Amino acid sequence: MPQIRPALQSEHRTGLTFFKQDSGVSNMPALKIVGSALPNIPWEERPAGSGEVLWRYSANPIIPRDLIPCSNSIFNSAVVPYNGKFAGVFRCDDRSRLQQLHAGFSDDGITWKLNPKRIEFKADTARVKEIQPFEFGYDPRVVWIEDRYYVTWCNGHHGPTIGVAYTKDFKTFRQMENALLPFNRNGVLFPRKINKKYVMLSRPSDNGHTPFGSIYVSESPDMVHWGCHRWVMDPSGGWQSTKVGAGPIPIETSEGWLMIYHGVLTSCNGFVYSMGAALLDLEKPWKVIARTRPYLMSPWTDYECVGDVPNVAFPCAALVDAPSGRLAVYYGAADTTTALAFGKVEEIVEFTKKNSKV
Asked: Which residues, 6+ apart, have CB-to-CB distance to 336 below 8 Å?
């Protein structure tokens, strides 16, 4: 079991809040994280001398592009705890470059075995068969709600929209109705009902690479009929000036829902995808409490800057050990491989509040 770091205190540099090791007691107020203990969470301590709030795993990338024989690339994938180990749904673009979803399992959350065959969704109702001819599927998210794991993904149905399915064993997946009309991407469910409704974040888009995009939230009484759409936030300058989209499943804390999201800058060399964080109101998640002005992580390493789509760090999943606040973020690197980063929920919340542009 890795050792837990000593308490951390904030350090200010040029208007930003970083963190440094301290042998004393943290002066940050206690943060309540709603969730379960995950003592076997993948974990690596922050590198000595680093002030980063989110730091990369030293053995990245954890999933190479060719882990299964048919894959051209494996990235933008979702991971959850499962039966004392880990399971997930993975984006695997095949060698014809068709975007597909595959199930996978891992003992430690780092070394993965993926099913070489893509997920074949079974229709949850007779009417769902009408939308089932497969076009493409990518960028999944997975969340446990009540008694099952729900999967959302960008589903091809005369354009990109939000597919919804559920599973209990990551072997049989039952597809439900698409949540929203085309064109939409980045459908991310909250991990519990809010005011007796299922709630989903999304980013309305277009049928191409979308040089725009804001985050919205929608509600449903039954995971089928979605409405009460509300705007959450727009792009906002710098690293997040072109578009923004929700990332992993939001994390419930006493300070609000912690939403890690991606932001996109249009540079002279194309899009650059970075990660940021926001705090959303617990009962009205369309209300933004705080939002990072600086990014948490941006493409710096070779595996993030070189690949099928250069300069991409795209977060899709996060594991949390609630008692310790340890966080493991899974992200797609350069639309080619899957990488891992670590942080502490309390530090990210504090960083978001102290460096907020709201």
From this structure: 65, 73, 75, 303, 307, 308, 309
How far apart, in whole angstroms, are the C-alpha atoms of residue 112 and residue 208?
31
Q: How far is residue 15's CA from residue 209's CA, in Å, rounded to a whole number?
A: 34
Backbone angles phi, psi at 115, to 5 degrees: -65, 125
What φ, ψ does residue 353 adopt, rounded to 5°? -70, -40
Are the C-beta atoms of residues 198 and 179 closer than 8 Å to each other? no
Calpha distance 153→106 (Å, rounded): 21
Which of 103, 95, 56 is CA-nearest to residue 78? 103
Compute mean pLDDT per 10 residues along the chain, 358 residues long, and list them.
33 39 48 98 97 98 98 98 98 98 98 98 98 96 98 98 98 98 98 98 95 97 98 97 98 98 97 98 98 98 98 98 98 98 98 96
The HSE-up count of residue 339 (CA atoms within 13 Å, CB side) is 30
Question: Which tokens go with 138?
Answer: 């990518």
Report whether 343 contacts 53 (CB < 8 A): yes
- Only one residue has tokens 């209300």, namely 287
Element (H, E) at 349: helix 345-354
Positions of E strands within 210-336: 215-220, 227-233, 243-246, 251-253, 256-267, 270-280, 288-291, 313-321, 326-333
Q: Which long-range contacts (CB under 8 A, 24 or more apart) does 179-184 make?
A: 179/152, 179/218, 179/220, 179/226, 180/218, 180/226, 182/157, 182/158, 182/207, 183/159, 183/207, 183/210, 184/160
Going by their DSSP bridges, the two strands 148-156 and 137-145 should be labelled as: antiparallel
Whose structure tokens read 């009309």? Answer: 181
- What span, in angstroms and rounded, lies between the C-alpha atoms of 276 and 84? 30
Residue whose entry in the numeric block shows the structure tokens 């997040």? 240
What's the pLDDT score for residue 19?
43
DSSP SS3 for 113: strand
Contact criterion met (CB below 8 Å) for 45 and 52: no
Nearest alpha-carbon partner for 88 in 165, 38, 149: 149
- In angstroms, the CA 176 to CA 169 distance is 17
